[in-house]
Amino acid sequence: MKLIVAYIQPHALTRVEHALLHLPDFPGLSVSEVRGFGQGKVRQVHTVREALTEFTGKVRLEIAALDEQTEAIVGAIATAAHSGRRGDGKILVLDLAAAVRIRTGDRDGQAIRSADLDEPA
What we know:
With 121 residues, this protein is α+β, with helices and mostly antiparallel strands. It has helices spanning 13-21, 39-44, 48-53, 67-81, 109-112, and strands spanning 2-8, 30-36, 56-65, 89-95. Helix 1 (13-21) runs antiparallel to helix 4. It is globular, with a radius of gyration of 17 Å.
């Protein structure tokens, strides 16, 4: 299992969402608005005040995926979020030690796979 964490431009979210929804058995995602800066910003900062006040807005995606889904998900995000300009974002892939679906107690791969959609939430 993997945890895919992607930082993308806010304007790319709709394209990325559409790309992911077209993947078979896509497990779902969490989206958060975040702020930060990369190495380019560190080189441009002249004062600590600039560093602390001039963050760039990004969107953070978190996706728990089965190993066999990872490359397709990463590829979909990278393609949909790409503009070729500095600041397009980053994708991180981390090993995921465990997952638990709270409602059913399913663990690991079963917790990541799509739940029975006929059951009420």
